[in-house]
Each structure stands twice: as C-alpha cells, then as structure tokens.
Amino acid sequence: MERLRRATEAHVRYHAEYETCFRRLVQAGVDAGVFTVTSAGLASYAILDLGMGVSAWYREAGEHSEDTLVWQYGEFALRLVGARP
Predict the structure, then answer these.
(1) Quick check: 48 and 22 in contact, CB under 8 A?
(2) Helices marked H in 1-85 — which ranges?
(3) How far from 56 is each of 1, 19, 29, 78, CA to CA, in Å?
(4) At what angle do helices 40-54 and 2-31 cross, to 10 degrees?
(5) pTM for the whole structure
(6) Which structural domain range is residue 72 located in?
(7) 32, 50 in Cβ contact below 8 A?
(8) CA 61 to chain centre
(9) Phi/psi-derived region of residue 39, left when phi > 0, alpha when psi is between -120 and 50, beta in every other case
(10) Residue 19 near residue 48 (C-beta atoms within 8 A)
(11) Region 44-72: what's the mean pLDDT?
C-alpha cells in the first residue's frame, strides 16, 4: 500500500511542477509579445490536456505516426496561444 501511495504522490507532484513550467513558457511568450492569450494558466492547462489525452486513443498501428502526431500537436499548441511569427 505504501509503495502505491508514494508512487501516486510522486506522479501528482511531477504534474503539478510540470504545469508550472508550461505556464512560465506561455507567460514568457506573452511578455515577449509573441503569444496572445489572456490567461497563461488556462493555456497551459489546455496544452497539457492535449498531451495527456493522447494515451486514451493513440495506437502505433493507427492512422497517424508518432512523429506526425507530435508535430501536429505542437502546431495546435502554437495556435492555441495565438503565436505570432
């Protein structure tokens, strides 16, 4: 029981810290004038949800290769934050 508790705690802590990194990345883009979101927090949650949702449906033998998926999701993230070239 204790091992599962500790593993779960580490998993949750990792994701809590991970979100902070994404929030900082988005906020830095906003501050630099290259992203146009009103909430870096909401944008970071949305981007994280993109990645976490993949495990629910992605299969290696599916319609999209991993490389295609990774590139396209990167494009989705840039659009989500209103990236300016």
Answers:
(1) yes
(2) 2-31, 40-54, 66-80
(3) 26, 20, 30, 22
(4) 130
(5) 0.80
(6) 2-80
(7) no
(8) 24
(9) beta
(10) yes
(11) 91
CATH code at position 47: 1.10.357.10
pLDDT of residue 14: 85
Per residue in 15-49, pLDDT tens?
888 889 999 999 999 999 999 999 999 999 999 99
pLDDT band for position 12 (50/70/90)? confident
Residue 69, judged by CB atoms within 10 A of its CB (0-12, 13-18, 19+), counts as middle
Number of domains in the chain: 1
Instruction: Assign 56 to helix, strand or coil.
Output: coil
Q: How far, in Å, CA of 29 to CA of 61, rounded? A: 36
Q: What average pLDDT does this structure show over 46-73?
A: 91
